[in-house]
Amino acid sequence: MSTTWERREDGTVVLTVDHPPVNALPARAWHELAATIRAVGADEATRVLVLRAAGRGFNAGVDIKELAADGGHRALVEVNRGCAEAFAAAYECPVPVISAVHGYCLGGGIGLVANSDVIIAADDATFGLPEVDRGALGAATHLSRLVPHHAARALYYTGRTATAQELHRFGSVWRVVEPDRLLDAALELAAEIAAKDPRVVRMAKESFNGIDPVDVRRGYRYEQGFTFELTLAGAADRARRAFARGGGAET
């Protein structure tokens, strides 16, 4: 995976994930992303973090082929830990995180954007969890932060996706723009935040997390336990092998 970042004069850091062909990340890449977010956020020079991706979509989840190729459970354990750490890194980042989303945002992508502070989406963005079709469970904790409760259940059980426009109506997407305006829109909002007193903004982020009614780390780890149960029962492995044979790579 290529994870690159650049710091702008106003203290905004733009972190770009580029893992062809579809930004479906193996375990190593999730851990790398988590470490990068934490390092950037720990730097006092950082005022805002913009999380974006190159390629056809923002994030296609985990690399199913990596899991299907593993004869044991090592890959599953590592990718689950990697996802948990990356999601937590975004949530616990000391500065506001703005996710700039284009194309598909699936599986692990939902965990990232729901744990960010603000979402700006291109008008071609779609959001969903195909976990049930992949024999896995997880990120319902995060999907429930993006859409109303019963809508989240319907999306989860069916594997359907929601559009950027729908999430904007729900209030979870701040702004919807044309794809070629996505980064500019994210940077405009980042600049507005970066102009504030950085100490106040960092404390505002910490205080907001402190009053959050949902423990996102614990909720996600609880969900992951059911993925292990499905794996031990054989249902998850069958779904992953079937999906891998079909040539996909996301969950």
From TrEMBL:
Pfam family, one: ECH_1
CDD domains per record: crotonase-like
Keyword match Lipid metabolism: yes
Residues making up the signal peptide according to the UniProt record: none
Keywords, sorted A to Z: Lipid metabolism, Lyase
InterPro entries linked to this entry: ClpP/crotonase-like_dom_sf (IPR029045), Enoyl-CoA_hydra/iso (IPR001753)
Top-level division of the source organism's lineage: Bacteria
Family that this chain belongs to: Belongs to the enoyl-CoA hydratase/isomerase family.
NCBIfam families: PRK07938.1
Protein name: Enoyl-CoA hydratase family protein
